[in-house]
């Protein structure tokens, strides 16, 4: 991956987007009804998307799906012969299907919140070359419905958003234009983790610009701050009576000057587990759910290392209800520890192109969590190339889920993308 100097641009004015639009009606049926009618068994988000060759610039193409199985007519069906929905109708219905329910009685316990997580995101280097040609909204054309549907959508933003700063001396440096941020917000992103090994690629000035740009767009951020207290402070949001605290920590910090310290802007590091654990314990006292996003592990390794597993368990022991990791640039497995889910790495979501197939595989991880601190996990399989993630076809998705089952710790992923304990 090559570093490059970006052209100066003026940020666009804040854009807003309206999430959670009502389902459209197709032929007198809601999209969810069409999906159930067309598929008849567990709803999947998979849509058929052909693969492109490495480094090729992928373009949006019509979505096809595998033919649904033959089904018996239901009691509510009309007397007319069963009519198959078109592939386009079926694909739209699949994408519009709801995030899985955490429990049948969650509403009685005070509500449920629906979260979606994606892996590492940059809009720099080769990605920016594509965006300047095709538009800054190009990455989201095939996944926007999935990103805008949940109550909160969360990403690991692994790049500063700035036109200024001093480039750091490291192998790879990234810097993304402020022009990329309004479409990112419009696609549905609400919260980003900034505790990673690229957010200060252009120094404290670049990080401060990133914070200011995110604040201007109304995107909340965790994992950085001026001083330890601010860096380890959670973002707290509330939906339907469920209060959630989000944290961001990094165990990949290029040099000591990047770490937050008294009066010093920097990232919340987790080489020392005590500050994160203390912050989680404090948040647990007032939040219904505690979510930790961690930057850790070995790049392109299928399996979490000892530090990842140790830290994830410590976070949960301290009160975390869900742990989601990034940095390896490939998918790693899942583990349930004391009834809580750990996703060790979600891989890349929007990142520079390379010739390693495993870096093209990722998921949108959907978590439906209730106030009783339980979460159900569902995965939407995604192929990400040339700056545009898109839903996988059924066959490729099934292969990914099988591989994730093999590398998970006491967990499995079924053909519908549901994660469960073995």
TrEMBL record:
Skewed-composition ranges (Basic residues): 1-13
CDD domains hit by this protein: MPP_CapA
Biased composition (Polar residues): 73-89
Regions crossing the membrane: 21-43
Region of interest called Disordered, as start-end residue ranges on this chain: 1-21, 48-89
Residues covered by the Capsule synthesis protein CapA domain: 114-353
Keyword vocabulary terms for this entry: Membrane, Transmembrane, Transmembrane helix
InterPro entries, A to Z: Capsule_synth_CapA, CW_Biosynth-Accessory, Metallo-depent_PP-like
Cited Pfam families: PGA_cap
Bias-annotated ranges (Low complexity): 58-69
Family: Belongs to the CapA family.
PANTHER family assigned: PGA BIOSYNTHESIS PROTEIN CAPA, POLYGLUTAMINE SYNTHESIS ACCESSORY PROTEIN RV0574C-RELATED
Protein name per Swiss-Prot or TrEMBL: Capsule synthesis protein CapA domain-containing protein
């Amino acid at each position: 991956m090559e570093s490059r100097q970006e052209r100066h641009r003026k940020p666009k004015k804040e854009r807003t987007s309206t999430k959670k639009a009502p389902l459209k009606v197709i032929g007198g049926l809601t999209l969810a009804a069409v999906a159930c009618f067309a598929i008849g068994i567990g709803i999947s988000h998979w849509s058929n998307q052909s693969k492109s060759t490495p480094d090729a610039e992928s373009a949006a193409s019509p979505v096809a799906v595998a033919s649904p199985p033959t089904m018996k007519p239901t009691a509510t069906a009309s007397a007319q012969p069963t009519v198959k929905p078109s592939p386009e109708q079926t694909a739209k219905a699949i994408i519009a299907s709801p995030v899985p329910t955490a429990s049948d009685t969650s509403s009685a316990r005070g509500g449920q919140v629906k979260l979606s997580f994606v892996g590492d995101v940059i809009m720099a280097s080769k990605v920016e070359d594509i965006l300047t040609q095709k538009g800054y909204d190009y990455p989201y054309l095939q996944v926007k419905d999935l990103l805008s549907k949940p109550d909160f959508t969360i990403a690991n933003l692994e790049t500063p958003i700035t036109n200024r700063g001093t480039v750091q001396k490291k192998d790879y440096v990234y810097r993304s234009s402020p022009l990329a941020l309004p479409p990112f917000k419009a696609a549905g992103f609400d919260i980003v983790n900034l505790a990673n090994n690229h957010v200060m690629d252009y120094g404290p000035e670049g990080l401060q610009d990133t914070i200011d740009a995110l604040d201007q767009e109304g995107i909340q951020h965790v994992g950085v701050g001026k001083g330890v207290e601010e860096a380890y402070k959670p973002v707290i949001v509330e939906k339907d009576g469920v209060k959630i605290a989000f944290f961001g920590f990094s165990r990949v910090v290029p040099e000591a000057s990047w770490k937050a310290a008294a009066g010093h802007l920097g990232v919340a590091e987790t080489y020392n587990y005590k500050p994160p654990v203390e912050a989680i314990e404090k948040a647990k006292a007032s939040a219904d759910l505690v979510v930790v996003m961690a930057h850790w592990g070995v790049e392109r390794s299928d399996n979490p290392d000892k530090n990842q597993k140790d830290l994830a368990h410590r976070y949960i022991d301290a009160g975390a209800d869900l742990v989601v990791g990034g940095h390896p640039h490939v998918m790693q497995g899942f583990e349930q520890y004391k009834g809580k889910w750990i996703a060790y790495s979600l891989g890349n979501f929007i990142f520079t192109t390379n010739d390693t197939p495993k870096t093209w595989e990722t998921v949108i991880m959907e978590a439906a969590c209730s106030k009783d601190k339980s979460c159900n996990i569902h995965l939407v399989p995604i192929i990400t190339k040339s700056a545009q993630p898109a839903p996988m076809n059924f066959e490729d998705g099934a292969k990914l889920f099988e591989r994730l089952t093999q590398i998970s710790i006491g967990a499995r992923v079924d053909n519908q993308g549901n994660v469960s304990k073995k």
